[in-house]
Amino acid sequence: MSAYRGRFAPSPTGPLHEGSLLAALASWLDARSQQGRWLLRIEDIDTPRCVPGAAQTIIAQLAACGMLADEPPLYQSQRGALYQEALDQLTTRGLAYPCGCTRQDIAHALAASGQPRERHGELVYPGTCRNGLAGRSARAWRFTSDFSTSESLENDQERAQAATDSIAENALQWHDRRLGAQSQNVSQAVGDFILKRADGLWAYQLAVVVDDAAQGVTDIVRGEDLADNTARQILLQRALGLRQPRYLHTPLVLGADGEKLSKQNGAQALDTSDPIAALDKAGRQLGLPGNPKAATAADWLQQATQQWARLHGSTAAQTTKING
Ligand code: GLU
Q1: What is the pTM of this model?
Q2: Whose Cα sits closest to atom 7 in ligand 1?
Q3: Most CB contacts within 10 A, which of 130, 136, 190, 273?
């Protein structure tokens, strides 16, 4: 076994479909091609969207395709205390703050500023509550997005100072093993994003960062639709002094409408009655040659692991940067 630790982190909003099998398979193949461990995390924090029984169905579908996690699965719904600890740490250091704004408050503030900004249909928060709640009560908690660490910052006081000295002009840069060089200025593109929602639920960004670190994940392999979250997650890793994993975002399976395949655009539950056919289709979508004549799912996976290694090589020689 190598030090590699990968994971598949489905939200149990329904059974696996063709698109989610692709992400599961890619993360499994990457882990196995590097003699690493493969972990499962059930991302069930957005409780209104979760479907009872879906986690069990997903685990059974993965098993039918020969993919078994090396450790017991982790359930995010049971980990609120850890997310609270991380939020407290950020708040104490001046890197997170309570926000009392409603959607309407944000719209008004943006209109008044003359520079309304939107992103994927979401208003970019203008930072109203950065300097205090002005008598309102806290609804949500936000991250100070122009936070930036520098190796030269020795202590918390200096780091907190760096957070208030706006270094927003610097875009965050990182490498994606498939997409190549990436950069995003989170402060400008996204703004102060939510860590804990007004409905009391934990935000995906905080939970994913806390849990990837807690599970010792060295490599994140997931669908390209999530690539845009990476800069926010790297910023949070730096703010919390956590190790930055390597990233690889896989191609997406598109539905008939050209959008990412999802339940909303008609993705059917994955049929695992013929696991080799399901794996072979997913493998081809990942650019592998396919192994249609494999006798069992395990045989299929074994051959595909070698094919994956030829395509994506080993990351073992690369160093992982430790931040903070
Ligand atoms: N739970 C997320 C999803 O199902 C994936 C999170 C991740 O891989 O970082 O889309």
Answers
A1: 0.90
A2: 9
A3: 190
